[in-house]
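Narrative summary of target 7.
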Amino acid sequence: MSCHATADSVREEKQGNMALQIIDRDLVRKLLPMETCIRLMETAMLQTASGTTCQPPRWIIDLPAGEGKCFGLMPGAMADPEIFGAKLTAVYPQNGARGFQSHQGTIVLFEAEIGAPVAVVHGGEVTAIRTAAASGLATRLLANAEAGDLAILGCGEQAREHLVAMSCVRELHRVRLWGRDVERAHAFALANASRSPVPIEVCTSVEQAVRDADLICTVSAAAEPILESVHVADGAHLNVVGSSVAQAAEIGAELVRRARFFVDYRPSALLQAGEFLAAKAAGLVDDSHILAEVGEVLGGSHPGRQSDEEVTIYKSLGISSEDLVCAHYLLQAAQAGNLGSRIDF
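Modeled conformation, tokenized:
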């Protein structure tokens, strides 16, 4: 079912009014398993790389409350499926320690025939799943085929989702976890034991966690680097996820310089990828250091990893096409299963 069909069917029900589908957090979790979301990320990344989307870089304002809190708008439009919309999101980095999602917001999806809104989707839950799914796709494309020694730096929501995503794309034989709060890290390991194919080892230092690891996911709220090049083994692949503004960086500039550097969307990375911008400001790299978007590797226009020994980095910022394809899929799935709630609008 397309969004066009949705608009037609709704007009037949009540002329002049549109039905707005409400897809809450629990329904997102039910309908969007990680394997499915990784496939949706293929669509988002391929269309992004092909130039058939309209995705201005995120608009962000810092909130007066400080502590890294900000509010962002991510509008976008896609050609296939023919949809457009926007995510409104508030980012509160300290929420994880309080038991809340760090990203709070909604995705509003519009159909293309008459321009009507057709769905409001829980943005925080979609963001949690699709961010890790994008890392899963990047890992599938860029990590060594035998990679399976995973280090996760951070113990919040994205740590959980990345554990699931990495398990989908590689056979894990070791999982190590580091977090600033050791008690919280142990609690994470206990709560997520069923999501890991092997016991989760809690480490007391970043160096211990990443030693000889060939998969590293940085999913912390760090504003300053927690991981340096000297600690990363040759051949490793990194998903650098936790920092999402130009002023923050989870990894050191020398590690950026050393690695082959890939992104979700080049225009956004040039403006907001804090690790890349810090390395550029230090004179270690220039704009050409961003080798390709993940969609270019997926589509075959860039080779990606070229040797077992090189270090690869996927810098994640998140793009609106990822949210839109998820919202569209969720709308179709909810309608097919007669799930969620609908209101005249």
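The longest strand covers residues 70-78.
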